[in-house]
Amino acid sequence: MKPSVLRYLALAAFSFSILLPFKAIAASGVDSLFVDARGSFHQEILNGHYSSQMRADYLNLHIYGKINDSFTYRVRQRLNVWIDKQDPFRATDWMSLSWKATDKLTLMAGKSAILIGGYEYDSAPIDVYFYSQFCSNLSQYFAFGFNLQYEVAKSQYLTFQVCNSPLDTGFSEALAYNFVWTGGFAPWWETIWSLNFIEDPQRRVMNYIALGNHLLFNKVQIDVDFFHRASFKQQNFFLSDYSLIGKLIWRVGNWNICGKAGYESNDAANVNANGESFDTVLKAGTSYFYGGCGLEYFPLGNDDVRLHIAYYRDSFEHKDNLQIGLKWKFRIIGASK
Predict the structure, then answer these.
(1) How do strand 287-297 and strand 220-231 relate by DSSP bridges?
(2) What pLDDT, on a 0 to 100 scale, did the predictor assign at position 2?
(3) E-strand spans in the chain?
(4) Which residue among 14, 72, 214, 257 is least enclosed by CB atoms within 10 Å?
């Protein structure tokens, strides 16, 4: 057996060995502890060549709890990601402590999601079958930092975050300064909008304006995301580097009928004097389209077990990808979030 396989088996055995003690301390502050996993069978045609493989996509351990009425915490650990010496927390998505200072003001510190608007970006990775180039190419999505959140009105929140940059990995001097509004205009229109100032490894600043919109119409849900990116040094600041993404889910009984498509573009002129792209995520001169559809089935009527079949195609590699898979949750303490 390969050493890498032995390491993963040892990690899995260790992870499950620590679950039983958590059950005994449920009364001491652990509100919810669960494991979720996703595996799939991928079939792909690329340049006329067919390939197929079984994949274990995700294995996550989640812990939610509270210390008292003011302090709560959250942990999400990816059990299928090997820990890196350069970044010992690479496999940790969440490791945060929140303090509800007043009825309206909450402060959070630790590792958490880097706050960029948009529902494709905001979705848990285990629930996304294919991503835009923008979301795929960020160097990291979770980072250490602190958040200050204020409830300006009922269910309307403004959040300020300072954290490590999504354009670099692990701990570095590059930071991100994020301003986010989470709320909505009506019961059928929810929003995650953000204004972001992001440093890259060379400490150059990119500005993001991310407008995520979630529309609810009875059994139909529609997401419309718009990401605008620009350097303050480029000639055409507006609408020369952007992504537009749409997703539709139609709920029919225990089934979801899904469709998603996106278009992304960055003008070739968005380069510095050395010909280097200001945007390191979607390079200057890029024009990209992707889209797909799928079916989800929930045999238990909730999200504890989900079967899916999803297809997508993109304009870069012109590949046809079909995946058939299963997601499941194993609850240990309380209800899963």
Answers:
(1) unpaired
(2) 45
(3) 30-46, 49-66, 71-78, 92-100, 105-113, 142-153, 156-164, 175-186, 189-199, 205-217, 220-231, 241-252, 255-266, 287-297, 305-314, 320-333
(4) 14
Tokens at residue 161, please?
A: 């975050």
Residue 63 one-letter amino acid: I
Q: Name residue 4's amino acid.
A: S
Name 323's Cβ contacts closer than 8 Å, sequence gap at least 6: 40, 41, 42, 43, 129, 308, 309, 310, 311
Distance CA(139)–CA(281), nearest Å, equals 9
Is residue 242 within 8 A of residue 229, CB to CB? The reply is yes
The whole-number pLDDT of residue 295 equals 98
Contact call for residues 212 and 135 (beta carbons, < 8 A): no
Contact between 233 and 280 under an 8 Å Cβ cutoff? The reply is: no
Helix (H) or strand (E) holding 133: helix 133-137
Please name which of 166, 234, 226, 222 lies closest in space to residue 198, comparing C-alpha atoms. 166
Identity of residue 172: S
CB 286 within 8 A of CB 328: no
Residue showing tokens 């060549």: 49
pTM for this prediction: 0.89
C-alpha atoms less than 13 angstroms from C-alpha of 24 in its C-beta half-sphere: 4
CA angle in degrees (0–180, nearest 5) for 89-93-99:
100
Condensed to tens digits (0 to 9), the pLDDT of residues 40-70 reads 999 999 888 999 999 999 999 999 999 999 9
Residue 245 Cα distances to 52, 181, 259, 278, 291, angstroms: 28, 19, 11, 22, 9
Angstrom distance (rounded) from CA 94 to CA 2:
30
Report the distance separating Cα 229 and Cα 175, nearest Å: 17
- The CA-CA-CA angle for residues 240, 244, 248, to 5°, reads 175
Q: Which two tokens stand for residue 200?
A: 């890259």
Give the three-state DSSP class for 271: strand
